[in-house]
Predict the 3D structure of the following.
Amino acid sequence: MTRGRFILLEGCDRAGKSTQCAMLVAALKEKGHSVELCKFPDRTTTIGQMIHAYLTNAKELDDRAIHLLFSANRWEAMQSMKRKLKAGTHLVVDRYAYSGVAFSTAKGLDLTWCKSPDKGLVRPDLTFFLDLPTAEAEKRGGFGEERYENRELQERVREVFLQLKGKEWVMIDARETVQSMHHKILKEAEENIRVGELDGRFAEED
Ligand code: 2DT
Ligand code: MG
């Protein structure tokens, strides 16, 4: 048995990450794969509730303190994520450490400092970046009430994301239709699963 793949979807607000994550999970399930959805921040945990209170402006927190809470929210999920991957379940993940670094750096924190608490987290095998110009994002019903949902910050967040972009990222133009994006994402995901099985890269390991 090969271990499951960690498939990450990142991007700015309104790019359609959650829709695409749900569609990818459903499509892979349909094809007989064992697959689960993870979302960060995970607002269901105790740390997640603190993050939720901050994002909904119910609570004020120092920029560094909230950055560390977002990271801790990933660390607390590690054991369970690793267990699932090892058991052969694919994880489709809606936001991860790139969001952590992009948002905090956009607020003015040092990039290197922002990266350090996430060092050692399990790495994605495949990262999609759903890219949407901020002006387009705004047209999609405007930004909501949560902290960070404003044009100036979103512009800076997108810039940092593009700065963080690695060779292995798959760029998806989020101005395309939902179906067209889904088609591309599913094709790449299936290819990653298939090729990894063939070359033994994902053989069960510790
Ligand atoms: P959602 O709208 O996707 O629930 O995100 N964020 C997210 C951070 O600032 N740091 C992080 O580590 C993560 C995962 C992005 C809520 C907001 O939280 C931001 C938007
Ligand atoms: Mg949001």
In short: Residues 2 and 202 are 5 Å apart (CA to CA). The chain has one domain: 6-199.
